[in-house]
């Protein structure tokens, strides 16, 4: 594989976006960084800016307010990028499917490479999901 | 201040303009008209030293019933002021100028139920600020009944197909 | 001249989207404009299409951190409507789940605040100390976060008796760790310098704004629904209400740290009292919900949660009003950020422990020159870390010079 891909596979930098979720998924993502699960030993770190991201981790059913900003973020992300839909809300809107302010699951707007289901997904599931995304690279 | 004492003082001050109902030992409801409800709210907040909590609105075909909660913490009960604004164009006086904590809840009631609060410092939608089109009030009875909420289970086979096989549309470069 | 700086909607410290526009003059903040609603999902309307028993699953997912608070207030509202008594064992189980949630929520906040201030060790340690609490919650209720314990009339699962020794062992361990954490954080001079006098919101302002929870108690405004509107087992246990006096970020941290000890005390008392109840008697059956209305309040980790339900006799609520404490608390940022620097503004808005889902970055709009400078999340955290480093150096030099 090319040098670029090799570097990418060694340590994916993850940017996390919350499109109106209840925040539980976000807590579980942060939990993965903490000493018990510690994904940093795989090289996965959470970055503060979308311009440094290799993987976009998006949780939440997309609400109307967030949609334009989500599109801007996706356009601003550098290529190559992998998108992971996180949690029951990210995959299929979850329990908020019929809300008037919820405009539908993530894959209506941007192409998604992996889905991590659960409400919230257990940290073990998250690690397994990220490894699957890495193997896709 | 004890419950009986509070009821007595409200009755003394406002007389027949209010109706006091007690649903349970800890819940007192006071019904007031639009003209005096802000006076009643300020009476409870300033003179009787209640705490300002929040508000709620319930609507039906005739109008919107708006209520504000004022708990008396030391004595363990809630006093709720209820007032009514008739449709069309429900309008009420606002207490946001006296109690700043009421600013956002009045904006929310305006946004959801189209209740116009007079003398509110900044009456605009609070929860759907920049995506709300002209005059769309989602919780109003007339609008709500049109909003489709599908109560059905996903069909098993269709869902299995979705999950198992189909590739996402488009690919990431 | 006044510049405008937008923060949000995805803020680095908070995990939930809010949007603040700061108006700055030089380095000082002179005004703020708050926009919320990024997570508005229309839950009150969704409630009207779910039966009375299905609603707790929906309201759990209003917020993930305080996921026991909303169902608790909702079932209290329904029980207020129906005027029924809950069996004693169910009351104790509810209280235990609720206080465990308070423990994990306060530890979570301390970790995030530590991370923002530049103390990544605090972040890692507090979240590590949180893990045993989540393990116990999983053993007792079945899930680390969305517990689904509440049901109108009682609880859905009984407390397994074989877990009780594990709970007691975990409590002892967390108490020791919390004591160590409290001492380490609150004795550090750099943390004092960063948080004392920052973001002050005093008692009278609390009263006018209806501030709740640790935000209010840190200013001396004495409001705690566990004591004022006691529900279930809270009038059978004894605990202290923690009050401070200044209302700055330091006091907010102190209140939360000391409340952890009180929660541990309450859980211990509940575990003792539950031994006298009959196992299996965990739910009072509600055959039908009569027409009427009910108000349910509960003291969540962030403040008072209020649910109002109205019924017209059917099997679904006619109206369900939810008011989370952050609705009142976020508005207090209007006054508490004034006069502080940009680096502190992020800390102040996070000190009220907002529960509205967030992330993202700051943009600075320079009105005078017409240019636009964008600070990313990394920049905002870097600003805060730089300030902490500068303070550390100053203290170190002070110590060297005697």
Blueprint (SSEs and pairs):
The complex is a heterotrimer of chains A (137), B (173) and C (402).
Chain A: H1 3-10, E1 13-18, H2 24-33, E2 45-46, E3 55-59, H3 67-76, E4 82-86, H4 87-92, E5 114-116, H5 123-136
Parallel strand pairs in A: 1-2, 1-3, 3-4, 4-5
Chain B: H1 3-14, E1 18-24, E2 27-32, H2 34-47, E3 55-59, E4 63-72, E5 77-86, E6 91-93, H3 103-113, E7 116-118, H4 141-144, H5 156-164
Parallel strand pairs in B: 2-5, 6-7
Antiparallel strand pairs in B: 1-2, 3-4, 4-5
Chain C: E1 3-7, E2 19-25, E3 28-35, H1 43-47, H2 55-60, H3 69-82, H4 88-117, H5 120-141, E4 150-151, E5 154-155, H6 164-186, H7 189-195, H8 203-209, H9 213-217, H10 225-228, H11 249-273, E6 292-300, E7 303-311, E8 319-323, H12 325-331, H13 333-336, H14 342-351, E9 362-365, E10 372-375, H15 377-401
Antiparallel strand pairs in C: 1-2, 1-9, 2-3, 4-5, 6-7, 7-8, 9-10
What is the count of β-strands of chain B? 7
What is the class of chain B in the CATH system?
Alpha Beta
- The H/E string of chain A reads HEHEEHEHEH
Number of domains of chain B: 1
- From the helix content, strand content and strand pairing of chain A, which structural class follows? alpha/beta
Question: How would the global form of chain B be characterised?
Answer: globular
> How confident is the prediction overall: mean pLDDT of chain B?
80
CATH superfamily of chain B: NADH:ubiquinone oxidoreductase Nqo5 subunit
> What do the pLDDT scores of chain A average to?
82
Domain count of chain A, please report it: 1
> Which range best describes the helical content of chain B: under 10%, 10-25%, 25-40%, 40-55%, 55-70% or over 70%?
25-40%
Biggest sheet character of chain B: 5 strands, mixed
Q: How helix-rich are the residues of chain A, as a percent range?
A: 25-40%
Secondary-structure class of chain B: alpha/beta
Low-confidence stretches of chain B: none
Distance between the termini of chain B: 69 Å
The CATH class of chain A is: Alpha Beta
Strand order of the largest sheet of chain A: 2-1-3-4-5
3D shape of chain A: globular
Beta-strand content bin of chain A: 15-25%
């Amino acid at each position: 594989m090319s040098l670029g891909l090799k570097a990418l596979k060694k340590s994916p930098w993850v940017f996390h976006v919350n499109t109106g979720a209840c925040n539980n998924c976000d807590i579980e993502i942060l939990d993965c960084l903490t000493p018990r699960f510690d994904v940093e030993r795989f090289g996965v770190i959470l970055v503060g800016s979308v311009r440094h991201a290799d993987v976009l981790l998006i949780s939440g059913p997309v609400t109307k307010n967030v949609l334009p900003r989500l599109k801007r973020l996706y356009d601003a992300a550098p290529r190559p990028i992998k998108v992971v839909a996180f949690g029951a809300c990210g995959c299929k809107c979850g329990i908020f499917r019929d809300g008037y302010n919820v405009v539908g699951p993530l894959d209506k707007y941007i192409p998604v490479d992996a889905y991590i289901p659960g409400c919230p997904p257990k940290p073990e599931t998250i690690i397994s999901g990220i490894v699957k995304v890495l193997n896709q690279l | 201040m004890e419950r009986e004492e509070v009821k007595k003082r409200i009755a003394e001050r406002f007389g027949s303009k209010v109706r006091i109902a007690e649903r349970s030992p800890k819940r007192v409801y006071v019904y007031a008209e639009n003209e005096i409800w802000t006076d009643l709210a300020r009476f409870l907040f300033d003179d009787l030293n209640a705490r300002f909590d929040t508000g709620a609105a319930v609507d039906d075909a005739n109008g919107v019933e708006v209520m504000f909660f004022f708990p008396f913490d030391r004595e363990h009960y809630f006093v709720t002021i209820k007032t009514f604004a008739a449709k069309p164009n429900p309008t009420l006086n606002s207490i946001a100028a006296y109690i700043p904590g009421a600013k956002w809840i009045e904006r929310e009631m305006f946004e959801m139920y189209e209740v116009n609060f007079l003398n509110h410092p900044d009456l605009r939608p609070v929860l759907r600020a920049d995506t709300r089109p002209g005059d769309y009030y989602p919780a109003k009875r007339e609008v709500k009944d049109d909003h489709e909420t599908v109560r059905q289970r996903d069909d098993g086979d269709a869902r299995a197909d979705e999950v198992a096989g189909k590739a996402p549309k488009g690919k990431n470069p | 001249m006044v510049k405008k700086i937008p923060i949000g909607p995805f803020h680095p410290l908070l995990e939930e989207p809010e949007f603040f526009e700061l108006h700055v003059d030089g380095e000082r903040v002179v005004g703020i404009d708050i926009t919320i609603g990024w997570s508005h999902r229309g839950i009150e309307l969704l409630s009207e299409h779910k039966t009375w028993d299905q609603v707790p699953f929906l309201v759990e997912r209003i917020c993930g951190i305080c996921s026991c608070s909303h169902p608790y207030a909702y079932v209290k509202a329904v029980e207020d409507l129906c005027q029924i008594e809950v069996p004693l064992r169910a009351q104790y189980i509810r209280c235990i789940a609720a206080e465990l949630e308070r423990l994990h929520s306060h530890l979570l906040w301390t970790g995030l605040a530590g991370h923002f201030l530049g103390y990544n060790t605090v972040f890692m340690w507090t979240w590590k100390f949180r893990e045993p609490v989540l393990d116990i919650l999983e053993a007792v209720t079945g899930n680390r976060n969305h517990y689904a314990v509440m049901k109108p009339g009682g609880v859905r699962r009984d407390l397994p008796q074989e877990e009780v020794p594990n709970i007691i062992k975990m409590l002892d361990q967390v108490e020791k760790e919390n004591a160590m954490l409290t001492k380490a954080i609150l004795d550090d001079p750099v943390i004092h310098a960063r948080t004392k006098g920052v973001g002050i919101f005093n008692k009278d302002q609390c009263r006018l704004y209806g501030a709740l929870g640790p935000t209010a108690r840190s200013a001396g405004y004495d409001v705690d629904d566990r004591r004022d509107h006691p529900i279930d087992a809270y009038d059978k246990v004894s605990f202290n209400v923690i009050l401070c006096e200044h209302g700055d970020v330091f006091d907010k941290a102190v209140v939360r740290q000391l409340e952890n000890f009180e929660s541990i005390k309450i859980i211990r008392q509940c575990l003792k009292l539950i031994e006298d109840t009959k196992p299996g008697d965990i739910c009072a059956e509600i055959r039908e919900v009569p027409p009427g209305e009910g108000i349910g309040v509960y003291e969540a980790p962030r403040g008072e949660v209020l649910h109002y339900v109205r019924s017209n006799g059917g099997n679904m609520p006619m109206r369900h009003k939810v008011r989370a404490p952050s609705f009142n608390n976020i508005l207090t940022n209007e006054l508490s950020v004034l006069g502080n620097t940009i680096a502190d503004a992020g800390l102040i808005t996070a000190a009220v422990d907002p529960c509205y889902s967030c992330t993202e970055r700051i943009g600075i709009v320079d009105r005078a020159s017409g240019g636009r400078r964008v600070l990313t999340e990394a920049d905002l955290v870097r600003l805060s870390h730089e300030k902490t480093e500068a303070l550390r150096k100053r203290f170190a030099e002070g110590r060297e010079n005697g």
